[in-house]
Amino acid sequence: MAADAELAGLKLAGEGCKPNIYVLFVERAEEQVAKLAERKWWVFGDRSLSGIRDIVHERGPVRAWSNVEIRGADGQFIDTDGILKLPTATRIAPSIRRETLAAIVVIERSAVLGKTPNQIGDYVAMRALGGVRPPRNGSKETILALFDSRITETPAEMTAFDRGYLQGLYYTRNAEFAAVTQGRIARRILKEKDAELAQVSKQVSAP
After folding, report:
1. What are phi and psi for residue 26, nearest 5 degrees?
2. What angle separates helix 160-169 from helix 117-128, to the nearest 10 degrees?
3. Where are the domains of the chain?
4. pTM of model > 0.70
5. What confidence tens digit (pLDDT) does each residue in 140-189 have?
6. Within 10 A of 130 (CB to CB), how many other CB atoms are there?
């Protein structure tokens, strides 16, 4: 997973840092997360009750969520009166950004049987760093299919889609409009797929 973070361009904190990604392997994931919602609701951040229910009742053996807070474009905090003071006003770039405080991934123990550590680490990276859920219709084009019972042959590692997504998402730490980020992610995914196809063609044509 550390390698996935570096692939995305993230710098890992040094020794003694406070962790902000938590991965839990439990029995009966839905039941355990439901207990968390009842007894320690604060671990879900400022989500609404309906948002928490969506997490609890997510399909499959995994539950994952990230807690974020709103800050100024340059990292300014909202003060105790709920006011965010910004040095400048502009329409060229957003004045706020979402800062991830923590990511939690809960996996049912029985579901990891037959999966490799690399597969699990890559999956967790996409859920925790990427903040994305598995596609509803199922797709083997992403490591997010790892725990999808409808997919018989899951990827052995991150796919071109996954690598491109993370690289595009974390290309810059500056605040920017969603359309800009989405466009860059799409270009990075296409670049990764082209590189993958070129590598396959090279192997096929080799004597």
Report:
1. -135, 165
2. 40
3. 2-10+21-162
4. yes
5. 899 999 999 888 889 999 999 999 999 999 887 667 888 888 999 999 99
6. 20
